[in-house]
Specification:
Length: about 290
Amino acid sequence: MHSTDKPLHGILAMLLAVFMFSGMDASMKALTSHYSPMQITCLRAACAWPFIVAWLWHGNRLQHLLDARWSLHIFRAVLGVVMLAAFIYALKTLSLADAYAIFFAAPLLITMLSVWWLKDYVAPRQWVAIAVGMAAVLYMLKPEGDQLLSLGALAALLSALCYAISAITVRILAKTDHSGNMVFWLMTMIGLGAGVLAIPDWQPLQATHWPYFLAIGLTGAIGQVFITEAFRLAPPSVIAPFEYTALVWGLGFDILLWQVWPDATLFIGASVIMASGLYLIWQERR
């Protein structure tokens, strides 16, 4: 803790950010039967872009936009396109709660990758927690029909892997680039890159879907602002556990919007994955 930290404010900011991102994911899931994952990825970035520019303008951050390490920003954008498209594909075939439970493998993957990428030390007991958590992920890769593995679950795991690599990249970028730069260029490059890739299967936007587009843009932008504030106000080890509240919102949206109720596999797998992640966070705080 630093003297300038405000842990309670950071926790509240994280809770609001998670709620907003869950609302955004529910809106994207509602569009998966009408548009391709790549088109929704493009629209997710494009809808959030005006709100992000307004946030940067209000905070007098626009003058720093060209002070950027372009190679890492482009790398993050590629990861972002794959991450969002894979997660949206997962939402098309899985419930929100199932997709979240598998995506919760991201903290485990971040710890694993930090050993190689950042030369961090991981104790043997932490490796045990990672192994147990990843075993739970494999348990949740249950088949669909005659398939060996669930393609939707594999897509959620791919999304978590891209998120983990991107998170490590942020730790490197943060040494030289402003947070506003990272948010702006990520959304800009994702929108452009996914838009180009979506052209072959692009579908005209239906007027009845505009409330979803507005919701995606507004909740995505607010969520991005508040998660940035959360990490500014409190140490990651304090606020990171509250990311798991996404499962509560996911269950709520599944039941309320799609009348999908959770099964035993979700509770068992999610409980083990979250317990492993929380143990790693606790070890980091020690």
